[in-house]
Amino acid sequence: MESRHLTQRGASGSAPLGLLDAKLVIPRARPGMVRRTRLLQDLRAARDRHVISFLAPPGYGKTNVLAQWAASGQRPVAWLTADEGDNDPVVAFTYLTAALDRLEPIEPNLFEAIASPTVPIRAVVGRLLSVLSARSTSCMVVIDDAHRITDRACLDALAEFVTYMPEGSQVAIASREPVSLPFARWRADGRLLDIGTGQLAMDEQEAAELVGHLGLSMPRGAIEELTRRTEGWPALLALAALAVQRSHRGDATIVSGHDVPIADYLRSELLQRRSAADIAFLTRTSILERLNGPLCDAVMDVHGSAGLLADLARSTLLIDAYGGSYRYHSLLRDLLRYELEAREPGRAAELHHRATAWYEANGAIEAAVEHSFAAGDPDLAAAAVGRAMLRFHWSGRRATTRAWFGRFGEHALAERPWLAVLAAWEELGAGDVDSTVHLADIAERGSFEARPPDGSASFESGRAILRAAMCRGGADDMLANATRAVELEPPGSPWLDFALWMLAFARLLKGDQDSAEATLADAVAAARAAGNEGLAYCLMGHRALLAIDRQDWSAALRFTQESHTIGVSGYVDGYLSSALARVAEVRIAIHGGDLRAAREELAQTVNLRPLLTAAAPPISILSLLGLARAHLAVGDAEGARTLLIQASGIIRVRPDLGVLPAQVAAVRATTMSQPIGLAGASSLTVAELRVLSLLPYYLSFKEIGQRLGVKATTVKTHALAIYGKLGASTRSDAVELAVKAGLLERFPT
User: Fold this and answer.
1) 3-state SS, residue 510
2) Which of the 8 DSSP states describes residue 291?
3) How many CA atoms does the CB half-sphere of 705 hold within 13 Å?
4) Model confidence at 322, in pLDDT bands (50, 70, 90)?
5) pLDDT tens, 555-575?
6) CA-CA distance, 553 to 594, in Å (whole number)?
7) Is the domain of 476 the same as that of 561?
8) Buried-state track 344-356, b at ≥16 Cβ within 10 A, e below 16
9) Structural domain count of the chain
10) pLDDT at 573 (0 to 100)
């Protein structure tokens, strides 16, 4: 398992390895491209407009205009061509930061922050903006194909980034469809320039240039008629001009949407004179978003694709994206995919199978998964997701993995119950009780004899580990399931360490601390042997906490220091698994007399509380107990009470938790003897914390409610409670006080 996938450094020491360069490169001007002088003049005159929106269907030349504008040298340009993968905030802002890193190197710790679950995406945006604000030169950021970004969290973060870009910089956003960004607000502020089909449409002079570049001769009157009938749509204008020329009549009145559909002319002008072998290559490789020689060799089951790709690029059938990587024009690719199905029905599935295998063999897991879904083969998709799950989970890509599981219907999960187990793990890690239980129920009803692709020994073993973590059957049932899983998982299994951890929890619930400690030591050894460094760090933290419980502070400090040598704390601190390690750090700071550091750490652990739910009762309650004891130790009884109320709520749902309910009751009794103080940041409930995380955004209560799935009145109630607990009178006051309390990261203005 690789827990640092997105934070490996490239040769420059800044941007991570494994990024697709073609997404970050300004497209090259193609031969015969019309220079859009009129539009470029308008753009140069709009230096004071902070945001430029390009909104038009395909074929209007948005990318070409942006590339010409970028080449004008007004400002350094950071370019990002978006795709569906950018709907994971980690991916989107890794690429955006990498684009800016190409202009001037960015410290690697920013890339590490992006991949770390403990750093909220808004804080990442703030840090990136701080970097840009410190630069001596302004820049232009181009986001092409922005319509592909639909994830609400990505769009909210992108809205903040665009809104607070430093003065003098510009952001250009090109899309085929409206994007859910606050264009209306930017427009009302006078910061937005709208470029639509009217501005992108070619005028008669540009149409004449286009006709000339196509090597055609046409009277001025015919060009005027052609421009009128096509309304200046560049792609259709070019196709219609070719149609007029082929008619030998020079009469532009023959052009109509019915007589000259784009597909017919793409066929006749671009494909008709191609050999059968070329047509087969074009149609079969149209399943690929981007093309290169080795990939096309694998998909076509041939050799020598690189040379053919270069020839096709010279003939303008392909666009040279960057360094041996190519792509089709979107209109042509649509036609080619249609032609593939018409010429070879059902062939696309086989081609997607081959693409899946090539991408997986070359470490491009996300592309492999996408092609496995496109193949329409649930088994192929499930296997690809299963093999990728652990790697993506520990690399901060949990939004991606949860989206993958969401693409399988309930029937597909029921037929592959091992996949329902994996999906349940992701929901459990997010603290979603209802979804975890629903998916676990699907797994409970299923059976599966083969070995799952996720690396577990069997479906029985994987389900037993999940049962133990959820503890729905009580302490004895947890012990039985964890014991069975340890028996089934062989040495070297990527799941043995987790099975042993659940066994340690079960023994703790039974009050057998000595056996639990020995089992934890075995779990650490298993994690290190399997290369699961993220989990090894979490396990070492749990060992430290057990040492604290027996007042062996030297052992606790040793375990904590050893966990730091693993070097992954910054990547796993936002995971549910890391909660006990965070508790141990706080308790050690308090014991060492560093109360200031302890309070700062406690403030940061507040963001873990939404993950501590009845989805995983043992780790949640042990974490809440440890945090409550820490709050008592720093004199914050009110904060301790809030944590214990949360723990008691979990116990009401899962009452059979061995010794834990009595421990919660004992600590709660201690808090009752403490004087009641003023409510503060530590007394915020989980629901209030969720609302607080969205208060800094430029969102109404109704919009916050839509994101959280609650009514606007509920959001208002929580907001007022937040104001009261923080001592704020306004929303901005509450945000500022939350920043001072360490609940939110300061954001540049």
Assistant:
1) coil
2) B
3) 13
4) low
5) 999 999 998 888 766 667 788
6) 15
7) yes
8) eeeebebbbbbbb
9) 5
10) 76
Under 8 Å between Cβ of 262 and 239: yes
CA 207 to chain CA mean position, Å: 42
Question: Count of residues for the chain?
Answer: 749
Residues 582 and 705 placed together within one structural domain of the fold:
no
Any domain includes 311? no
CATH code of residue 99: 3.40.50.300
CA of 332: how far to CAs of 54, 262, 325, 556, in Å? Answer: 21, 9, 17, 63
**Structure pTM?**
0.79
Q: Domain of 522: which CATH number?
A: 1.25.40.10
Tokens linked to 696: 């800094």
**DSSP reduced 3-state for 175:** strand
Phi and psi for 144 in degrees, rounded to 5?
-95, 155
**555 three-state secondary structure:** helix
Domain boundary among 395, 415, 442: 442
> Are both 183 and 117 inside the same structural domain?
yes
Provide φ and ψ at 142, rounded to 5°. Answer: -110, 125
In a domain, 170, yes or no: yes
Helices 365-374 and 347-361, interaxial angle, to 10°? 170
Tell me how far apart the alpha carbons of residues 423 and 145 are, in angstroms, rounded to a whole number: 30
Q: Do the domain assignments include residue 321?
A: no
What string of DSSP letters covers 220-275? HHHHHHHHHHHTT-HHHHHHHHHHHHHHTS--GGG--TTTS-HHHHHIIIIITTS-
- The rounded distance, in Å, linking the Cα atoms of 694 and 704 is 7
512 and 619 belong to one structural domain: yes
Instruction: Looking at the structure, tell me whether residues 15 and 130 fall in a common domain.
Output: yes
If asked whether residues 660 and 532 sit together in one domain, one would say yes
Across residues 402-416, what is the average pLDDT? Answer: 92
Question: Where does the pLDDT of residue 679 fall: very low under 50, low under 70, confident under 90, or very high at 90 and above?
Answer: low
Among residues 223, 243, 260, the one where a domain terminates is 260
Least confident of 452-461, 519-528, 637-646: 637-646
Q: Which residues contact 350 (CB under 8 A, 6 or more apart)?
A: none
379-401 as b/e, with b when 16 or more CB fall inside 10 Å? ebbbbbbbbbbbbbbbbbbbbbb
pLDDT for position 415: 94
Phi, psi dihedral angles at 482 (to 5 degrees): -65, -40
How far apart are the C-alpha atoms of 58 and 342, rounded to whole Å?
Answer: 23
In this predicted structure, the answer to whether residue 116 has a pLDDT above a threshold of 50 is yes
Residues 6 or more apart whose CB falls under 8 angstroms from that of 447 comprise 417, 459
Q: Is residue 158 part of a domain?
A: yes
Which pLDDT score, from 0 to 100, does residue 136 have? 86
Report how far apart, in Å, the C-alpha atoms of 486 and of each of 458, 503, 558 are. Answer: 12, 8, 27
pLDDT level of residue 245 (50, 70, 90 thresholds)? low
Kindly report the backbone phi and psi dihedral angles of residue 287, in degrees, each rounded to the nearest multiple of 5, phi listed first.
-75, -10
Say if residue 669 is in the same domain as residue 690.
no
* Closest among 612, 609, 617, 624 to 655, alpha carbons compared: 617
CATH number at residue 704: 1.10.10.10
What 8-state DSSP symbol labels residue 608? G
- Rounded CA-CA distance 144/321 in Å is 14
SS3 for 137-173 is: CCCEEEEECHHHCCCHHHHHHHHHHHHCCCCCCEEEE
Select the more confidently predicted residue: 654 or 276: 654
Within 8 A by CB and 6+ apart from 214, the residues are: 32, 238, 241, 242
485 and 380 in a single domain? The answer is: no
Domain residue limits at 409 = 349-423+434-442
* Best CA proximity match to 641, nearest among 590, 610, 679: 679
Integer Cα distance of 568 and 735 in angstroms: 30
